[in-house]
Amino acid sequence: MRVERQEVDGVTVVSVADPVEVDIGNAEEFKTKTIEAIGVARHVVLDATLVEFFDSAGMAALLSIQKSVAAREGTLALASLNRPVLEIFRMIGFDVVFRTFPDVPQAVAALKA
Predict the structure, then answer these.
(1) What residues make up the domain containing 54?
(2) Overall pTM surpassing 0.70 (yes/no)
């Protein structure tokens, strides 16, 4: 799994490079590589365009990533979640835990404000 990083208007945007389902088999790798890609950035958008699914282990990885960013008094936003993932987020209350946006430009704009 490759996780890429880019800077957009002073906000760090991280994304997986290939389509992936984040599940028990790769959630730890996803978490580790994402935290490495984030580095010490404080304003982070996780572009989930190529993430097809998060199981419970994947969601736990997201919580760990958020905790890592929050430890630096930073903010993590999720962008471009597909409809099934967004529906699961709403069912379990993750839409309250995470700031979600329809796309990266909107997430970047919100974190810059």
Answers:
(1) 3-108
(2) yes
